[in-house]
Every structure is written in C-alpha cells, then in structure tokens.
Amino acid sequence: MSPALPILLAAVLVGAGTYGVLARRHAVLMVIGVELILAGAGMVLIAAGTFEPDDYASGAVLTMFVITIAAAEVVLALAVFVALYRARGHVDLQPDEASE
Asked: Does domain 4-88 have CATH number 1.10.287.3510?
C-alpha cells in the first residue's frame, strides 16, 4: 500500500479542522476543529512509522503523546467553556454588543 492514502486522509482531517477553527465562532466547535487537526497529525505520524519502521516505534510513541495532550486540552477547554457559559449565558467567541 502506498503512503498516499493515509496522507490524503490526514490532509482532509487537517483541512476540515482548519475550516472549523477559522469559520466557526462557537467555542466548542473550534475545539473540535483543533482535535481534527491533532488527529491528522497523529495519522501522519502513524503512517510515517508504518512505512519507515524503526526500533523505537517513534511514530506510535509520538502519537500517544499527541493523544494525551489532546485529552488534557479538551478537559481544560471544557472547564473554561462551562465557566464562560455560567458568566455570559453562551459560548460564542465574538464580543457582546452590550459590552462595547
């Protein structure tokens, strides 16, 4: 199997994640976009480890670090969003018209 298919899938994930981060104003959807970007990065790392095997399994180990950091990022972001929702009543990231 050629490395084109996993790299293409990673490119689709990163593209969808980039669109989600840039085009959305809802905070939870932006975090989902960041998670898609991290999933694309993990896909590239696993594909690189599969097509160029090494003794230390660097691609898989780095992907585990990416997954761990992504989980911590989601927990922290959701805690911030809950506090933001309690304070403002919504989690849109555009400024309120009343505060300007």
From this structure: yes
